[in-house]
Amino acid sequence: MKTKIDPLSVAAMVVTVVCISATAPLTAAGSASPLAMAFWRNCLGFAVLGPFLLLLRRREVGRVARGERALLRREQWRPLVFGFLAATALALHFAAFMTSTRLTSVAMSTALVATQPVWQALIAAGQGAKTSRRTWAGLTLSVVGAAAAAGLDIESGGTALLGDLLALAGALAQAGYTALSERSRADVSTPLYSTFTSLVCGMELLVVCWLADIPLTGFDRATQWSLLGLLVLPQLLGLGALNFALGRTSATTMSILLLLETPVAALTAWWLMGQNIKPATIPGLLLIIVGVTIVLMSGNEERAAGQPGTYRPEIPPYPAYAPYTPQPLPTPGHLTVRHDAERRHDAGRDPRVDWASYHESPTVRFTYHGAGAFDTVHLRRPRSAKDESEL
Q1: What residues are paired with 363 via a beta bridge?
Q2: Bridge partners, residue 366, by sequence
Q3: Largest Cα–Cα distance in the chain?
Q4: Which tens digits make up the pLDDT trace of 137-187?
């Protein structure tokens, strides 16, 4: 069954791409230290979205505060450590990426930081995951494209090469944030985890600015407008439109569409800042986009395929104290009689087990450097034919 994309979804996709593409030009337009801007971006984002996200999960926050979930049990110290490490990786990402926009062109910075899926695939391969030939082909194209695009910066010298390296470091840090987050989210909801990582990330950037004696106030009017733009465009409008679009289309589609950030950001920088794109770098930038697209599509196919004849849904890991373990799916057409004892037993069943009964992966995992700390993991029931007819 083909999924129809309504005009509202298309509009949400356009808003997402345009708003997120403003990240690098707005950062480059400011005159304050990139580390200070990174701190204020996280601080303002947490101040606006943090209380809202906590309000959505106020019952969970209350249970955590009372210790009913025993988040600091012995088995929970490991996820907590990984959570701090993930927030640290996120702080490194913001510091490296936002600094790179001042040292190299906006086009190079956004293209190189968009290689995050490439580094994530390499991390997965290093952990023993099987990698297809198509994925390796995409990795190769991305590396060749990055080398070709950065070649001119090597020849020209100056700070451009340092900016390229920082953009790659930002992509690697974002991939590390994603990998560490998968290990840390054992029994914490996405809103609570996002708020936690945003708070830790902001505090770490505050400490760095304090140790480096970087001023956090007294900005000129251009920097103030840049910070306001970073809050309104990528953090609020971009994130809101992204979450709306993810409810109506696949994460892979959105990931590929967000690769348009590179040309859109480059055109924005040319229009607002007069920053030209070197024609010799265009082939390399295109190779990066094509390579990352292949990696994203290959990764999606590998997750959908799984092992032949088996269904392996990507659901969050079960905590050690889960009250129920998954049971085999019933044979189609077989009538199962449920007794009162079974119904009472299922009353304490882990709700995540129910998602394993659907023959589509219910987990949508999506990250992008514009949202940063507010990356989301959606558990969504696939729409049935009856649901589609009711829309």
Answers
A1: 379
A2: 376
A3: 76
A4: 998 999 899 888 888 777 766 788 899 999 999 999 999 988 888 777 656
Q: Which amino acid is at 107?
A: A
CA distances from residue 180 to 16, 124, 172, 296, 302 in whole angstroms, order as listed: 26, 12, 12, 19, 21
Give tens-digit pLDDT for 302-349: 655 554 443 344 444 434 434 444 555 555 554 444 555 555 555 555
Q: Which residue reads 């760095």 in tokens?
A: 208
> CA 203 to CA 193: how far, in whole Å?
15
**Model confidence, pTM:** 0.74
- Sole residue written with tokens 């920082």: 166
Contact indicator for 292, 258 with CB cutoff of 8 Å? no
Which residue, among 288, 194, 202, 289, has the nearest Cα to 243 in the 3D structure?
194
